[in-house]
Write a structure and sequence with these properties.
Blueprint lengths: L16 E2 L5 E3 L9 E2 L2 E7 L15 E8 L2 E2 H5 L16 E9 L10 E6 L2 E7 L7 H8 L10 E3 L21 E6 L3 E9 L7
Parallel strand pairs: 1-7, 2-12
Antiparallel strand pairs: 3-6, 4-5, 4-10, 5-7, 8-9, 8-11, 11-12
Length: 202
């Protein structure tokens, strides 16, 4: 994928949220074909209303930070979504984050943190938030152009290299896999992939 000129934005429904140790449920439609992927991401939580905020002031609107996994299904994201990414990223429980919210007063520079993912104990992503294409401040500023960000809004800010879809052969998540995403000075989330039972057709 070429580097984007602008941040690539999509929305996840509130039902996609999950806790730091919750299972990642995989509903029957997402079991139809391979493509389930992981994405470790720095998560910013808005603490103060923001609209048309300049990049220089954007971080003052952040309550705190967490780490999250932007669970994605590439088939649904890129082929079945009609050009919209949300279908492949918005299934129930596909945005686990935590393990808490660390105050922005303690994290002065969100662009200097180590971030990583382990799949069944093996490191598959290992990077730093300094390598983000668009930093937290730039992302918030862009999002706030004509759109009001409210306290409690949760922003997943992008993933480093190492995702399963970028490997040869691809490394897709399977039922029972354990995913740990970790962010320096924040902590980690460990979640198990759990296929839900398929309902019999009548």
């Amino acid at each position: 994928m070429p580097l984007p000129k602008y941040p690539v934005l999509f929305y996840k429904p509130v039902t996609a949220l999950g806790g730091p140790s919750d299972g990642i449920p995989v509903a029957a439609p997402a079991q139809e074909v391979e493509g389930l992927d992981y994405e470790c991401e720095l998560v910013a939580i808005i603490g103060k209303e923001a609209r048309d905020v300049p990049e220089s002031e954007a971080l003052s609107h952040v309550l705190g930070y967490a780490v999250g996994n932007d669970v994605s299904h590439r088939e649904w994201q890129l082929k079945r979504g009609g050009g919209q990414w949300a279908l492949g990223k918005g299934f129930d429980g596909w945005a686990p984050f935590g393990p808490g919210i660390v105050s922005s007063r303690l994290i002065k520079d969100p662009q200097s943190l180590k971030i990583s993912t382990k799949l069944n104990g093996k490191t598959v992503q290992d990077s730093s938030t300094r390598d983000m294409i668009f930093g937290v401040a730039a992302t918030i500023s862009f999002l706030s152009r004509g759109t009001t960000l409210l306290p409690g809004d949760i922003i997943f800010t992008g993933t480093p290299q190492g995702v399963g879809s970028g490997r040869s052969p691809p490394l897709w998540l399977k039922d029972g896999d354990i995913i740990e995403v970790k962010l320096e000075n924040i902590g980690s989330c460990t979640n198990k992939v759990e296929y839900t039972a398929k309902k019999p057709r009548l």
